[in-house]
Amino acid sequence: MSEPQAKGRVQVTDEENGVDQQLKNQVLSIRQTVDQDERKLFVDRLRDPEIPYSRAEANQDWGLSVRQYLRAIKRLWDDEGKISGVDEYWRQMHLGSVTLVPPDTDGYQFSAVAQDAPAADLRRHIGLPRGVDLPEPYEYVFRGLKDVLNTRVVSQSWTITVDNSGPPPAHERVMVQDATGVPKPVLENAVEAADAFIQQAGLGFETSLPDYYGGTEPGI
Fold it and tell me: Residue 97 in contact with residue 140, Cβ under 8 Å?
């Protein structure tokens, strides 16, 4: 999904018979906070050498703001059958993906499976015996805003046979796991999709994104 043309404050335009104005104002306030938190976390805090803070922590914290925005939007409708775009935006739209790779463990370079190489070469490189299945990278695709709303952490585990000598009960196995939060590009796509959903869903108001940064946006 492409970046919005301009990010910043969201304005609300009322229409007759629209959603309750108080609820609209709540959505507006949360949407503004999303942008404010993005700047505060990824610019002010992350780039401050005096503050021990990582990009992973910034992603996690900003994800809280983004999910608040999505929850607020969900409260805007009573009967999803009367709202256009619910199925597309909330269940189907591709908002990005994240790939997990088994981490290196006990001297085994399991992460090598991410390389594009023949299976036999990977087994030799990792030190696995013939005939065992290689672990495979796990790709999680975020489908619709519901996935972003409901996902805090993406995780996967692998059970890998490292010694298949003797009968199967005697095989030696190693269990490894990996996990990550929702990546920032996915969060950005979710905010953009949520803005678009509001504009076309007929919920009684629309959002517009004025040129808050004077035509340029800081790199974050």
Answer: yes
Separation between Cα atoms, residue 27 and residue 121, nearest integer Å:
54
Question: Does residue 41 sit in helix, strand or coil?
Answer: helix
One-letter amino acid identity for 216?
T
Distance CA 11, CA 132 (A): 58
From first to last of its 220 residues, the chain has per-residue pLDDT tens of 443 333 434 444 445 445 577 778 888 899 999 999 999 999 999 888 888 999 999 999 999 999 999 999 888 765 555 677 888 999 999 999 999 999 999 999 999 999 999 999 999 999 999 989 999 999 999 999 999 999 999 999 999 999 999 898 899 999 999 999 999 999 999 999 999 998 887 665 555 544 333 333 434 5
- Give Cβ neighbours of residue 38 (< 8 Å, ≥ 6 apart): 62, 65, 220
Distance CA 11, CA 88 (A): 24
Concatenate the DSSP letters of all residues of 139-178 into one string: EEEEEHHHHHHH-SEEEEEEEEEEE--SSGGG-EEEEEEE
DSSP tag of 55: H
Q: How far is residue 54's CA from residue 59's CA, in Å, rounded to a whole number?
A: 9
- Is 19:83 a contact under the CB 8 Å cutoff? no
Does residue 131 contact residue 164 with C-beta atoms inside 8 Å? yes
Cβ contact 38:220 at 8 Å: yes
Orientation angle between helical segments 184-200 and 55-74, nearest 10 degrees: 20
